[in-house]
Amino acid sequence: MVLTPGPNMIYLVSRSLTQGRRAGVISLGGVAVGFLVYLVATNVGLTVVFTAVPELYVAVRLAGAAYLAHLAWKALKPGGLSVFDPQEVPHDPPRRLFLMGLMTNLLNPKIAIMYLSLIPQFIDLTEGHVLFQGLVLGSAQIVVAVAVNLTLVLAAGVIADFLSRRPSWLKAQRYVIGAALGALAVSLLVDTSGPGDLS
User: Fold this and answer.
1) Which residues of 68-85 are buried (b: 16+ CB within 10 A; e: fewer)?
2) Nearest-angstrom CA–CA distance, 153 and 148
3) What is the 3-state secondary structure (H, E, C) of the chain?
């Protein structure tokens, strides 16, 4: 899911290609703080809701399946935009770079929807500490997201040059990601277990 192009990735790669790696890394710091804001906000809410009404798990699971299906379609549909087709961005000072990264993430509803629809699938209510479980799972996602995006920031120029000469690779990447997301959406849709059955 982290490899699915979205506003954060497009902004970070564009910033790195037009202003350099340092600018991309500073922007990524703002994006990471945005992840933390969404993580805490969604998990505090999930703790309250799941404790009071565990039956909402089914609705959340179906919403998660729909979200994954939407991401799969975006990856598979014709004419999708490549993240390595950079957009022009102005050169900004470090403070503005950080704030732009933060705002790009906070204004990206994909992150909130992802936390709300996916984290509950892996919470085991019988183990207790729902808030702690959610924060640990979300933190793992943040570590993966920051690592992947940092790699893209540092290697943006090389990757863009490589893929510009191999358009078939871009198409193959979209198909692989779309198929994987679609398969995960189907597995969530047909899953009949309750939240207490997950570990």
Assistant:
1) bbebbebbeeeeeebbbe
2) 9
3) CCCCCCHHHHHHHHHHHHHCHHHHHHHHHHHHHHHHHHHHHHHHHHHHHHHHCCCHHHHHHHHHHHHHHHHHHHHHCCCCCCCCCCCCCCCCCHHHHHHHHHHHHHCCHHHHHHHHHHHHHHCCHHHCCHHHHHHHHHHHHHHHHHHHHHHHHHHHHHHHHHHHCCHHHHHHHHHHHHHHHHHHHHHHHHCCCCHHHCC
- Phi and psi at residue 129, to the nearest 5°: 50, 50
Q: Could you tell me the sign of the dihedral formed by the alpha carbons of 174, 160, 1, 11, in that order?
A: negative
- Residue pLDDT, tens place only, 107-132: 766 677 777 777 877 888 777 788 88
The tally of CA atoms less than 13 A away on the side-chain side of residue 109 is: 2
Cβ within 8 Å of residue 8, ≥6 positions away = 31, 101, 104, 105, 108, 149
Residue 75 CA to residue 176 CA, distance in Å, equals 9
As a whole number of angstroms, the distance between CA 38 and CA 53 comes to: 22
Token readout for 180 is 């994987």
Digit-coded pLDDT (tens) for 26-70 = 999 999 999 998 888 887 776 566 556 666 666 766 776 776 687
